[in-house]
C-alpha cells in the first residue's frame, strides 16, 4: 500500500507534497519535514509548510469527531473501530490526564509515532477540552515538534544514537 501511495504522490511538487504529507495521520510533520529537506526545500519553508499542513485537519477533527463518531457508531464495524481508537488513545494519555492542556501540548510535541496532532485532537475530544483551548495546545505542541524534528534532521540534536550513522 505504501508503494501505491508513493506512486500517487510521485508527480507532485515538493512544497504541496510537504503540506499533504503533514496532513496525513502517522506521518504528520515528523515525516513531512525530512521529506521536504530531502527534496531540497529550504529549511524555514519546510518547517512552515509542515506545521501548517499538520494543523489543517485539526479544527475539523475537533469540531466533527463527536457527531461523526456518534453517527457511525450505529454500525457495528465503526462502533468497534471507535471503541478501539478511543480506548487506545485514552491508554496513551496519562500525561494529558495529569497536566491537562500543558500535557496535551507536550504529548503532541513528543516526536514519536502515535503522539502527534491527530492523536492529540482525539485525546482533546475524549477529555472534553474546549475546542479553542485544545487547538492552541495542539498548535504549541506541533510547533515544538517541528523544532525538534527540524533540528534533528539538520544534525543539531541527536534523539536516538541507534539512528545515527557511525
Task: Chart the SSEs and their pairings.
Layout (H helix, E strand, L loop, with lengths): L1 H8 L4 H10 L4 H11 L4 H13 L2 H15 L3 H16 L2 H16 L7 H10 L4 H23 L13
Helix pairs in contact: 2-3, 2-4, 3-4, 3-9, 4-9, 5-8, 5-9, 7-8, 7-9, 8-9
Order of helices and strands: HHHHHHHHH
Structural class category: mainly alpha
Q: Work out the helix count.
A: 9
Radius of gyration: 17 Å
- Estimate the strand proportion: under 5%
Count of all domains: 1
Structure description:
The structure is a single chain. The protein is mainly alpha-helical and 166 residues long. It has nine helices and no strands.
Can I get a quick summary?
The two termini are 32 Å apart. The protein has helices at 2-9, 14-23, 28-38, 43-55, 58-72, 76-91, 94-109, 117-126, 131-153.
Task: Give a quick set of tags describing it.
globular; mainly alpha; 166 residues
Amino acid at each position: 500500500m505504501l508503494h501505491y501511495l508513493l506512486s500517487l504522490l510521485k508527480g507532485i511538487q515538493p512544497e504541496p507534497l510537504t503540506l499533504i504529507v503533514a496532513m496525513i495521520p502517522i506521518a504528520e510533520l515528523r515525516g513531512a519535514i525530512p521529506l521536504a529537506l530531502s527534496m531540497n526545500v529550504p529549511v524555514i519553508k519546510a518547517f512552515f509548510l509542515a506545521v501548517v499542513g499538520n494543523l489543517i485537519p485539526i479544527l475539523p477533527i475537533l469540531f466533527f469527531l463527536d457527531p461523526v463518531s456518534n453517527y457511525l457508531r450505529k454500525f457495528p464495524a465503526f462502533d468497534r473501530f471507535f471503541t478501539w481508537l478511543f480506548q487506545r488513545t485514552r491508554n496513551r494519555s496519562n500525561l494529558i490526564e495529569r497536566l491537562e492542556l500543558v500535557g496535551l501540548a507536550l504529548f503532541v510535541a513528543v516526536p514519536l509515532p502515535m503522539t502527534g496532532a491527530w492523536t492529540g485532537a482525539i485525546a482533546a475530544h475524549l477529555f472534553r477540552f474546549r475546542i479553542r483551548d485544545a487547538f492552541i495546545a495542539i498548535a504549541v505542541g506541533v510547533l515544538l515538534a517541528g523544532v525538534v524534528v527540524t533540528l534533528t534532521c539538520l544534525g543539531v540534536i541527536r534523539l536516538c544514537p541507534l539512528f545515527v550513522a557511525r
